[in-house]
Amino acid sequence: MYREDDFEDEQYAEDDWEAPGPDERDDDDVETLPCPSCGKQIYEETEACPYCGDYVTHSNSALAGKPLWFVALAVLGIIAVIASILHWVRFLPAAG
Q1: Residue 49 burial (CB count, 10 A)
Q2: CB contact set of 80 (below 8 Å; sequence gap of 6+)
Q3: How far apart are CA 67 and CA 74, in angstroms?
Q4: What is the pLDDT of residues 6-24, one digit of tens each?
Q5: DSSP for residue 95
Q6: pTM of the model
Q7: Closest to 51 measured CA to CA, from 43, 42, 59
């Protein structure tokens, strides 16, 4: 059994401890990003959002997270460019 006066107050003084400075902190800071469903900041490696509970999928696709109107406009733009090229090629005089 121990008594409180068994510990020396000088050895365990609360004032002796100092928080680490900015240069002494761990450099392995984890990146955060907004949850696709609720928008709150979550860790990048999170599988499910702790706030809304939805599963987070990370995609490398260029169109990931883009609204449907943006994708439709991009497809129409590509079709318009191809159509104008085909129209221009068809009316070129034959070389010869």
Answers
A1: 19
A2: none
A3: 11
A4: 555 555 555 666 666 665 5
A5: P
A6: 0.35
A7: 42
